[in-house]
Amino acid sequence: MTAVLRRAPRGRMSFRHQAKTNLGDPITMHFRNAFLLVLMLAAPLSALAKSSWIPSPPARDIEARLAQLQADANAMRAAVEAGRRAAFFCVNCHGREGVSSLDNIPNLAGQNAFYLLTQIDKYGDGRRKDDFMSGLVKVLEPEDRFNIAVFYANQPVPPAPVRDARQVAAGARHYDRACKGCHGPRGHGSREVARLAGQREGYLIAALKHYRDGTGVRNDARMAGVAKRLTDAEIAALASYLTTLP
Ligand code: HEC
Ligand code: HEC
Q: What is the rounded CA–CA span in Å between residue 45 and residue 190?
């Protein structure tokens, strides 16, 4: 589901639902900016007044808190529920439980909590760039960001069905050669290394090209080094393999 902002007669704004669209096209950019506008209007004035970025606590504090939650089922449940509430707006694009229905919007379900939080922080302080996400995360408090990451990390992500067995097999070979060392034998990643298993195919392709092409949209020295050796065909094969991994 996506929506497009329409200017109705007499200057009123309204949302119109549209079955399929591409987030890169101008209409959808309007839609994303409109979402941001709606959010800004809905945000309490106090949030607007301090719309500057508040950094998350140091990594070791985050890790200590995550470890604490792992050891305390009640505290974990409370964080997941707080995260579910704080993510009320994210569901519009990332799906109700973090499983996106659009190929170019990433699944957040099953993603590693530390990685998710790192990415939110990267949008917030400019190390990662996306017209919409970079603005959106600035209205979240550090506590909300933490709980949102915990909520999504605890949702299941369904793998996509195999469509082209040959391409999937080629992707598996590239993966074992070049990626397994960091992302793990089943693509589950760890800590700050992203989970790739079950991720949306189109999003994986776009992410790998962002690293490879060095446009400044995504900045990570390790991934840039790996991605610059990949051809478009290898990227396509890798994505079609990874999206099918449970
Ligand atoms: C209008 C649609 C939209 C909404 C609403 C939205 N997102 Fe996103 N989100 C995207 C798109 C598109 C991307 C991929 C952008 C890119 O390539 O960097 C993304 C990327 C992300 C990522 C990076 C995932 C990864 O695998 O690296 C995180 C984390 C994220 N969003 C969190 C959130 C949170 C939290 C909210 C709610 C506060 C939210 N998003 C709301 C569209 C949206
Ligand atoms: C040296 C370790 C390392 C190797 C090898 C590596 N990666 Fe990564 N990868 C990372 C790290 C760390 C990140 C998170 C980077 C960031 O913050 O942007 C990442 C992020 C990604 C992402 C972004 C995921 C998302 O949700 O946005 C994709 C896609 C990816 N890697 C694919 C691959 C593929 C495919 C290979 C093999 C060709 C590979 N990686 C090899 C460390 C590695």
A: 38
Domain boundaries, the chain: 2-42, 59-153, 165-242
Q: Is the dihedral of CA 111, 181, 246, 76 positive or negative?
A: negative
Tell which one of 90, 111, 129, 223 to mutate to probe ligand 1, the residue whose CB is within 8 A of the most ligand atoms: 90
- Which of 103, 122, 179, 205 to mutate to test ligand 2, by most ligand atoms within 8 A of the CB atom? 179
* Residue range 168-202, pLDDT digits in tens: 999 999 999 999 999 999 999 999 999 999 999 99
Predicted structure pTM score: 0.88
Question: What distance in angstroms lies between residue 13's CA and the mean position of ligand 1's atoms?
Answer: 24
Cα dihedral angle (206, 116, 156, 188), rounded to 10 degrees?
70
Task: State how far the alpha carbon of 225 is from the alpha carbons of 112, 134, 212, 214, in Å.
Answer: 22, 25, 8, 10
Classify residue 74 as exposed, middle or buried by CB count within 10 Å of its CB (0-12, 13-18, 19+).
exposed
CATH topology of domain 165-242: Cytochrome Bc1 Complex; Chain D, domain 2 (1.10.760)
CATH topology identical between 59-153 and 165-242: yes
Q: How far is the CA of 183 from the centre of ligand 2 (A)?
A: 7
**Looking at the domain that runs over 59-153, which CATH code has it been given?**
1.10.760.10
- pLDDT digit string (tens) for 18-45? 333 445 454 555 566 566 666 655 555 4
